[in-house]
Every structure is written in C-alpha cells, then in structure tokens.
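Lab notebook page, bench 4
Experiment: in silico fold of construct C2
Operator: M.H.
Input chain length: 485 residues
Purpose: comparison with the prior construct
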Amino acid sequence: MLQPGDRVVAGVSGGADSVCLLFLLLEWRREFPLDIAVVHVNHGIRPEAGEDARYVEKLCGEHKIPFFLTEADVRQRSILEKCSEEEAGRRTRYEAFDKAAEEWGATKIAVAHNSNDRSETQLFHLFRGSGIRGLASILPVRGRIIRPILCLERWEIEDFLTQQGIFYCKDATNDEDDYTRNRIRHHILPYAEQNIARGCVVHMNQTAELLAETEEYLELQTAEAVNRCIRSIKAPGSALQPDVSSQAQEEHIAVEPFLTLHPVIRKRLLYEEVKRLSPGQKDITYQHIAELLTLFTQEGNRTICLPFGIRGRRQYEQVILTIQTTQTTKAADSDDQTAVATPLWQQRDPDMIPGQKKTVECALGTLEYSVWEASHGLEKNQEVPTNQYTKSFDYDKIKKCPMIRTRQTGDYLTIADGRGGMIRKSLKSFFVDQKIPRKERDRLPILAEDDHVLWVMGYRISEYYKVTENTKRILKVQLIRKEFA
C-alpha cells in the first residue's frame, strides 16, 4: 500500500476518520521516508465549514505539510449534473485529489474510509441491486488510491483520538437522516449489531474481502473470454458520405463462442463491454444485460436500445454493440438511403480511342475505365476475366451515364433465371441473400444506370450488362484506389 519514498496526498476533512489518517501517516513518516500533503474540500453546504478548513490548515502548519484548499458549490453542482449532493460531493473531492496529486507529483492518494463505511456501502449496493464487484464494496487499494484505515471500525478511530488527546471536527450533517447512507448508519447497522449478530461489521468486511478475491479471479476469466469472442473496430460511415460517420468504437461479439461461456462470464462480459462504451454505467442495470442476452439466444436480426445511445444488434452470427449518434441512428434504421452520386463520365465520347484509359475521382477512391473493341470468339454469356474490383460490361447496352453512388430506393439487379432468361432482383434482397450487414449496405458503392445496378463493387455485376458473344464494345472499369472498408 505504501512504499518508502512515496509522496502521498491525503484527503482531510477535519473529521475523526481523516484526522486519524493524517496522524497515522505522520507516525509512518517517522519509520520510513514519506512525503505528505493534505487536500481539504469545502463543499459550501455548512456554515461552519470554514472553521473545519482553518483547523486542517493549522494542523498542516504545525507539521510543515503542504495544504491544498478547494472551495466548491456542491449543491449547485448536483443540480447542474442532475445527481445527488452525495455524488456531487464525491466527484468534487476526487477531482480535487487528482488535481493536487498532479501539481505536487504524488504517487498515492490516501482517503479515510473505515470498516463501517465499507459495510454501509455493501448494504447500499445490496439493496439497490449489485454484482460481486459492488458487494465487495470499498477496496483497500484502487490504482493509486489507498485506504489505510479501512481495517478500523469507527469506534476504534474515535477511541484512538480520545486517548491521544487529538481534537477533530464534527459534521452535523452526519447526524441527520437526509442521506441514504446515514439511514443505514443510524438504523440498520446498529439494529443488526444488537439484534441479529454481534460483530456484524467485522463479518461483513470479511465477506467483502472474499468477494474481492472472487471478483479478481472472475476479471481474469472475463478477460480471457473477451479475447476469444470479441473484436473491436471503428464504426465507419458511408464511403460517399464520410461526414455522417460517428467513428465510434464497435464491439463485435461472435455468437457461437459466446454461448459456450458459463452464464456468469456471459453477463460479466456484456456488462464490461457496455461500460466500456458508456460515459457512465450507473444507469446500466441487470435488466439491460438480460435483454442483450436474448440477442444471442433468440433467432432473427434485432436491435435493443440501452441508455447513453448504446445499441445492441444481432447481425447473423455476431452481436454488435455500438454507440449511435443521431445521424448514424437514422442511417442504421433506414433501408432507404439518399445517395451521393458521382458520374462515371460527364458525357459519352463517341470518338474515345479504344483502350484509352480515363479516371474519375470520388469519395470511395479512384476509378479507371476504358472502352475496347470486343474480342472475337467469346462464348455466350462468358464474362471477360476480371477480379472483384475490375469488371467488364457491354458498353452499347448502357444508354445513360452510369453513376457511382450508394444504394437508394428502387435499386435492382438483373440475374439469370436458370432458363436462359433474366429476372429482376431488388438490391435489398441481394444484400439479404449475401448476408451483408445492414450497416455495411449503406457504405457499399455501386455503379448504376438510373435504378438499374451495373455493379455492386466487391460483389457482382448485373446479368443484363454482361459481355456476350454479341457484344461489340466492352467497358472495362477498375477500382484502383479504395477508400472504403
């Protein structure tokens, strides 16, 4: 918890717990090299708070300790941030601790939670609904934050100060029942101590220690499960509409390996990933995690909405967690997109030299095209050898300027019907058959003549435009620089 040479910022309110912490740190400073500084936060709630600050500053002066004072309007902050005064005060304190630690170069931040605080927090989490982590309550060490007196009960702390003749301030709000924690402190724990089990605070702290060890083990198991089941990617927008890209993180969870996990690890994995995406996890509940679990066990591609704009959606053999912005939400919810189009050519060139290459720049990259006299001896319906980003078309069947764009309402392909003819197939149906995820459909560039799609780039071309034995001129189009994933 503490090492020789540590520089420790201690949060000292002037109350019994924090004054005890300060004097213990001073005692340890006599045993090994230790630098100490103090942070005091005036929450601006009690009229006598200024006296507490002056007392703490006096203690620091007597022991030649740097003193950092933060004055705040916690009540106003709770209104602005729509949280309780308790929560607003906690945020203010830890911000002050962090700021002082950075300015002073501290290696540790010491706070004065005791065993009773741990038991109260444990009960509060239990009543509200919590997992193992919450029931483990306050931890002795969390990063650079240490709690040296977590092993002491409140009565032991006050008894020590009395024996040593050390004065401490009393906060009148601790005697009120306005806060939930105070009601647990004044009524529930004393009743349990007197009527249910003597030493309940000690027993609850022992349980918290066991749960903390269990939590540490489960964290390791969950991390291994994440490596097996999840890949994280950036959430790109349309190749032709880069301004609507959220660039948010997406978590792709493979369904099959996820379902082999123990139910406990499944829930933990989902909770961790949702927490990773969210600005704060206080509004993420067990019910939200239970809803996400149905995406893995119930058939059909569905979407579930959670707080903070987080969405979970089933996409064939994976579940995707992401944060949706207003623009990307509209795009994800709609199968009808307004396409941004770039013409392959401005006007048809009747004098274009066979084999002459021309280029066109667009948002997805660079396309190169050329027109050739058809080769002799092609078998019927044989396509000129190409790859997925180079395709050839019957040039004379194209009557209008082809457009490079994303999908739009009414788009269709022509496909062989198996009887020597052709039928129309909607682009949406093609995407579904190919299991192309909905979000990727909005990004795929296509080459189209009005609503007739010549080519879904990276996939197939329309049967109607294929090169045949009757083709006289061939349009060859190649995507030579790709700007979409």
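Observations: Confidence is low (pLDDT under 50) at residues 238-247, 326-339, 376-382. Residues 258 and 266 are 7 Å apart (CA to CA).
Next step: discuss at group meeting.
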